[in-house]
Amino acid sequence: MAENVLPTEALASSEVSDRQLRKTLSFWELFCLGMSAIIGSGWLFATMAASSFAGPAVFIAWIIGGILILFIALNYAELAGMLPRSGAIVRYPHLTHGSYTGYLMAWTYFLTGIMVPVIEAEAVATYFSSLFNAFGSKGNLTLAGSLLVIGLTIVFFLLNYFGIKFLGRLNLILTIWKFIIPVLTFIFLFILFQASNFTAGGGLAPRGWNFVFQAIPLTGIVFAYLGFRQAVEYSGEGRNPQRDVPRATIICVLTATALYTLLQIAFIGAINWSKAGVNPGDWVALAGTKLASAPLALTLQNSGMALLVAFASLLYLDSAISPGATGMVYIGTGTRTLYGTSVDGYAPGVFSKMNRFGIPLWSLVATVVIGWLVLLPFPSWYKLVGIISNATVLTYVMGGVGLLVLRRVAPEMKRPFRLGGAGFWAPVGFIAAALIIFWSGTSEVAVVSVGVYIGLPIYGWIYGIRKMGLNAIVSIVVGILMAVAMVMIGYFNQAALGYTSAPATFSQFILFWVEETVAVIVYSAIVWFFSAQEKRHEIWRAAWLVALIQGLLLISYFTSFGPNGAKAPIPFPIDTLVAIVYALIIFYWGYYSGYKTEEISEILGQQSEGAVEQVSSAD
Q: 1.10.600.10, 2.40.50.40, 3.40.50.720, 1.20.1740.10: which CATH number matches 13-440+536-612+614-618?
């Protein structure tokens, strides 16, 4: 066991790094960053994916999804006003629960940050594949389509390279366009509205209401809302973040909910079954038609009306602008996520180095290059969207927990925006995030869990050696064994991950669950044992997070969201009530696991010194 801890770096290093960021973004620029991220590929594809998955009742899923995201956003509104930081969402967990929790969230969020620009570029290529077959067909890209994706991400890189002021101004112009086009789209779709579509195929919810809820995480609904966090992520570069970030965040979610709900209702009513080539009410079959390549444009074209056909041509142009602008914003998000992990010590310091425009250059480069690797296993918008949604929402469980932890350990901290009824909204926001994950289904949760845990060795290799007092040889060897173990668990349990035609049997699933749980516990125990004694508590303070993931995974197998569907032992909606109770228990475990970290003490000290200086100046 280590006897000595490496010298602690200056606690104010993150503050010094943050001061290098350019604070130029106004309220409208922060709002437009959020709206630009929201109005991306989601509105172009999710209406189709959701309809084919759950039928006409799916418009209700958009409303529920918007409400759940609003519950989550409310918690971050106070946090962002109180602690404006670039890469904020990955940095709050470190401030409230220490390094192990912070790293798990940072790694998970980084994975999603690098995936989103790729999926937005995939959306552009997919829409164009309906015009040029060389790029792909029915939502799947060819080699040429993949090369187009790589080219687009290079463009995103260049637009981000020249700094946040340039990005903010350009995005402000693009967002006006991006908002007008969806509004005109649902207006024109309403011209084709047929009320009979809402009962075709067996009523409002022909596949059952559990599919309506499952559509929220799996078909791009949650993905379409995820852009709300941009104001939080760029808060360290705002002119007046304490005032502007909460307003921008909440208004973004409310605006998007209204827009998407109207768009979904209009699309369902406008479907022409004969032109689509499927029987009326055969919602599932829609996903296998050409309509999947460009749902909204082809629906308008199929009308044969000159005005709508002309507008459909404009949608093809927008299919490059909307996802393209969103990809541009999210390249910046991934960059700031890696920047935040570097500032917190989870990644090498080179990723927090700025270029002359105030942009973390090597974080930007790494975000683009690593994102290209996502194309190999996921050359399709439809295949990637559920994984991104779940992994991102997992990081959002920290909002409500962190809010109440800081209320308890740092009540004196300045709160320009104070959320009323936080004791209610914090657990509600946590439950909202947990339900979205739970509704995604057993195999989706399993895939996310593997993605989360496979990054654990990096914690030991970088942060553990530098700041936890871990012996380098022990950390390297144990990390390699953990990485190999997770790869093998994933490879030999493909049925549990949903990568086989037949769903996982009970014995296959339990074997996967036990192997994964044991691997995480053993690795964490070894890191705990070889860490400096005064640092050990940071390991067990993340136990609640592992319990949340593994608990939701286990419960989901026995519910209607597992492989047995309606035949599951715990039917819908009782299964959702079980998940709510479990999430509430974990929430309070997570709340009591939080503590007053050294970083929070340092921030409070700086605020106190600032107040004294202001008084002295006044005197």
A: 1.20.1740.10
